[in-house]
Specification:
- With 191 residues, this protein is an alpha+beta fold.
- The protein folds into 2 domains: 95 residues, no CATH class; 69 residues, no CATH class.
- The chain has 6 helices and 5 strands.
- The strands form 2 sheets. It has a 3-stranded antiparallel beta sheet with strand order 1-2-3, covered by helices on one side.
- Strand 2 and strand 3 form a beta hairpin.
- It is elongated and about 75 Å long.
- The relative contact order is 0.09.
Length: 191
Amino acid sequence: MLESSFGLRFFLKRPKIESREWIVYFRITVDGIRKESSIKRKWDNTRWDQRFERAVGSKEDAKSLNFFLDSLTLKINEIKTEMMYSGKTITAEKIIDEVLGRTAPKIKVLEEFQKHNNEMEALLGKGYSKGTLDRFTITKNHLTAFIKFKLKKQDLEFADLNLEFVKDFEFYLRTVRDCSNNTNKPSTELD
């Protein structure tokens, strides 16, 4: 999804305790909504050029900070581009969370499938029959084998699921597992 505006700024913020070393911050603005965060570094405010948003000087510490700021700029732009290409809504908060590693834990398909089956097993006789649980268990086993066969992985994140995966799984059930339409349709229906 394209954003109508995007901005990235680096600046110094005065610490609560009087000091020549100020805290370096970055601010991301998307569609007029601003979020900012510290980069966990301090810098002498007399050696900072706000117009260029960089440390001033040819000393190694200035070069190091400027290199870090350039690297951070690159990382932020990569995250923004990845969000754009994957169709995710781009917000300043999401970008900062990704930069700082505060992303939500990845939910795995087979783990959730097993949780579902465990809950169903606990509800046997209370709305679910043994036959229904057996069909879900067989489907999970087929899905496990398919993920190993097709993707060479032990599990798959929900974020990686797409229509192509579902169609490939249906094809796998019909060809490799030789499942009939009655077995196939309930295993792959999305609604």
